[in-house]
Amino acid sequence: MFGPLVLAISLVLIALAPALLLAAAVTDLVLSRRRWQTTRVVAFAEAYLCVEVAGLLALFGLWIASGFGATIRSERMQRAHYGLLRRLLAATNGAVRRLFRMKIWIEDRPERRPGPILVFSRHAGPGNSLMLVGTLMIGYRRSPRIVMLAKLQWEPLFDTMLNRLPNRFIQHDPRNRQRYVDMIGELASGLGDDDAFVLFPEGHDFTYVKRLRAIAHLRKRGYHDAALKAERMERVLPPKHGGVMAAITAAPGGPPRTRGVDRVAVRMVAANRRLDRRAPHRAAAVTGYGGGSGPVISGVSHSSPVGAWSVESAIPSS
User: Fold this and answer.
1) How far is CA 309 from CA 89, 201, 214, 305, in A?
2) How are beta strands 143-149 and 195-199 bridged, if at all?
3) CA 127, CA 106: separation in Å to the nearest integer?
4) Residue 110 belongs to some domain of the structure
5) How many CA atoms lie less than 13 Å away from 75 in the CB half-sphere?
6) N or C, which terminus of the chain has less Cβ within 10 Å?
7) Is there a single domain that holds both residue 68 and residue 198?
8) Whether 123 and 95 share a structural domain
9) Both 269 and 179 in a single domain?
């Protein structure tokens, strides 16, 4: 709906890039002692607008190539869309690395091997989520199947691209909870050897108000032990297990074993204090490989130098 409008606005802002960058540079010379924060932010915004325009035009071209949408769900067109998404993420990651000197470390880096994987990640904002998906697609050549909030569809590029691929947009609606849980299980059930299922068990970006509400909800439902654990999580929301269990149960091969045990630990790492601006922000992977034909489980954590907590969910033995 908003695609043509966003495209037009993006083109105007790209045309104004020289004037905007000059104004940002002057601002930095006067106010930021030549640290160039404003200039780098404006430069990244312009780079992202270029990615937006290129992506929307490429999606239009793929729609024409698919017979005006007739074969948009075919395997060939799905591969083409994943290839486009991979290139767009690579361009975005490249801009971030150059402008903000961002680096990504993967702790206990798992080997590449065939077989579906389930990824349960800390919910730390859209930028962090893009880094995670980019790592899966570029570093591990995986085709992600992502569960996201429906509100993300306001962004035309995400809306068009991700609705053409096997992903699911859900809402926080208690009346339709089982429907969304079933959708998550359905999405996980069709995983192939090169696919990665991605879910954010927290369900929200962290705020103190949401944390208090979640703890109160646990107590109201009688989950007093879980509420006590949640109170020790100062920067993380307690994870929701319904979607996690649906994905694990529905994944090809049935409920997996991780490192020979019948429990899957979803490890999340939270900051107990503010990060120093010079401290690295790490994305670490904790991976267990199950026996038999079950999927690999990856608990992906986004860590600061301090603080950690883990939640374990019982999984029936396969």
Assistant:
1) 30, 14, 17, 13
2) parallel
3) 17
4) no
5) 1
6) N
7) no
8) no
9) yes
User: What's the pTM value of the predicted model, to 2 decimals?
Assistant: 0.80
Q: How far is CA 221 from the centre of its chain?
A: 29
Q: What is the pLDDT of residue 124?
A: 75
- Counted residue by residue, the chain has a size of 318
Report which residue type is found at 131: M
CB atoms within 10 A of CB 201: 23
Instruction: Using alpha carbons, list the distances in angstroms from residue 239 to 58, 184, 244, 256, 268.
Output: 37, 15, 9, 20, 9
Label the pairing between strands 117-121 and 195-199. Answer: parallel
pLDDT of residue 297: 52
Rounded to the nearest 5°, which phi and psi values hold at 264?
-110, 120
Is residue 64 exposed (0-12), middle (13-18) or buried (19+ Cβ within 10 Å)? Answer: exposed
- Do 42 and 174 reside in the same domain of the chain? no
> 219: helix, coil or strand?
helix
In this structure, the answer to whether residues 70 and 146 fall within a common structural domain is: no
Q: Which two tokens stand for residue 278?
A: 């010079």
User: What single DSSP character describes residue 49?
Assistant: H
Q: Compare 161 and 302 and report the one with higher pLDDT.
A: 161
- Residue 107 above 90 pLDDT? no
d(CA 85, CA 167): 13
The pairing of strands 296-303 and 263-268 is unpaired
> Which of 296, 207, 213, 287 has its CA nearest to residue 247?
296
Contact 146, 162 (CB under 8 A): yes
What is the span of the domain harbouring residue 85? 3-100
DSSP letters spanning 193-207: TTEEEEE-TT-S---
Which of the listed residues 100, 130, 160 is the one where a domain comes to its end?
A: 100
The C-alpha R_g of the chain, in whole angstroms, comes to: 21
Which residues on adjacent β-strands are paired with residue 185?
none
Which residues are paired to 72 by β-bridges?
none
pLDDT computed for residue 261 by the predictor:
27
Residue 107: inside a domain: no
